[in-house]
Amino acid sequence: MEQDRGCGEDVVTRSIRMLADHGYLETTVEQLAQAAGISRATFFRKYGSKEDMVFADHADTLERLELLLRRPGIPAASGLAEGARLVFRHNLDHPARAAARHDLLQGVESLRDREIAMSSRYERVFQAFLQRALPASADRRMTAVALAAATVAVHNAFLRTWLRDPSPAGGEQLVGALGGRIAWLCGAFEVPPGEGGAASDISFVRERTAMRFDDAAAPHSVGSAPIVVVVPQGADPASVAERTARSVYEALRS
């Protein structure tokens, strides 16, 4: 990534912070390019539009995720946990950028819509992996759709927790907890750790450990409650993904 002259932050991070501080609509590409010490044409060539620039690093992260999940023989549960941690660690490695983007998205609805679309791309990568990693069964596609959506929802919940206090120590604690929470998800879908997984119906009731996040961003157990996801045969995969993600998100917030 190109580094800004005289500053340790890269051009993307500085540009996102500038948009957050001075207004997304009010700040022009010319102003961003001038602050970065490059021409307007160079800015467009390297980063595209303002909106493209805000999410510029996701393309590289998605590519790294796909490479990870294409490793031969990687088990379903291991792949999900490693993949979620890879994406989470990208934000830990760029805390100023993650915080600036979070601040910017709070006030720009169109960017929040773009973020949702970006989450869908991560879901599709995880879904494609699960369809390869899970054993053949009548429910494999539906399980892959639901588990991929749940994995992204859990990752995003952990990321929002860290962004409330983006400290390195808190981030490392959450990395470990994220792996454990993905393992719990796989257990809920009857995908055992370290194995390819077992066929399962995605209508299930499982006991889970509720999580609360304190001011230090460290998760810990506070009790248990069931999560219920009931999906009729022949349900639309998009509806399954939305319902599962919503159930997991609400459970983590409780």
UniProtKB/TrEMBL annotation:
<dbReference type="InterPro" id="IPR001647">
    <property type="entry name" value="HTH_TetR"/>
</dbReference>
<dbReference type="InterPro" id="IPR050109">
    <property type="entry name" value="HTH-type_TetR-like_transc_reg"/>
</dbReference>
<dbReference type="Pfam" id="PF00440">
    <property type="entry name" value="TetR_N"/>
</dbReference>
<keyword id="KW-0238">DNA-binding</keyword>
<dbReference type="InterPro" id="IPR009057">
    <property type="entry name" value="Homeodomain-like_sf"/>
</dbReference>
<feature type="DNA-binding region" description="H-T-H motif">
    <location>
        <begin position="28"/>
        <end position="47"/>
    </location>
</feature>
<dbReference type="GO" id="GO:0003700">
    <property type="term" value="F:DNA-binding transcription factor activity"/>
</dbReference>
<feature type="domain" description="HTH tetR-type">
    <location>
        <begin position="5"/>
        <end position="65"/>
    </location>
</feature>
<protein>
    <submittedName>
        <fullName>TetR family transcriptional regulator</fullName>
    </submittedName>
</protein>
<dbReference type="GO" id="GO:0000976">
    <property type="term" value="F:transcription cis-regulatory region binding"/>
</dbReference>
